[in-house]
């Protein structure tokens, strides 16, 4: 679930308990200024399959997820099975 000032500019959905896709929407209005917007990811260690970065579960800021690539596909460590 997204929260914060630009939460309505983020779509996130989970596939089971091992993969979460996070996509920004209508970003021309906000640019890269995500302010306090974040995504709640279940506890554990996650890997962004598109950038190779590791993310800890919990509240993850949107600007961190979208820093190197405009969308995120995070999977629980160990990949998708």
What report would you give on this structure?
It is a single chain. With 81 residues, this protein is mostly beta strands. The chain contains one helix and six strands, in the order E-E-E-E-E-H-E. The protein has a single domain, classed as Immunoglobulin-like (Sandwich), CATH 2.60.40. Strands 1, 2, 3, 4, 5 and 6 form a six-stranded antiparallel sheet that branches. Strand 4 (38-48) and strand 5 (54-61) form a beta hairpin. The mean pLDDT is 90.
Descriptive terms for the model:
6 strands, mainly beta, Immunoglobulin-like, 6-stranded antiparallel beta sheet, 5% helix
Summarize the structure.
With 81 residues, the chain is mostly beta strands.
The ordered H/E elements are EEEEEHE
Question: Would you count the extended β strands for me?
Answer: 6
Q: Determine the oligomeric state from the structure.
A: single chain
Describe the main β-sheet briefly. Answer: 6 strands, antiparallel
How many domains, as an integer? 1
Fold-level CATH name: Immunoglobulin-like
Alpha-beta classification: mainly beta
Strand content: over 45%
Portion of residues in helices?
under 10%
What is the residue-mean pLDDT, rounded to a whole number?
90
Low-confidence segments: none
Q: Quick one: CATH class?
A: Mainly Beta
Taking all Cα atoms into account, the compactness measure Rg is: 12 Å
Shape: globular
State the end-to-end distance: 23 Å
By DSSP (H or I, 4+ residues per run), the number of helices equals: 1
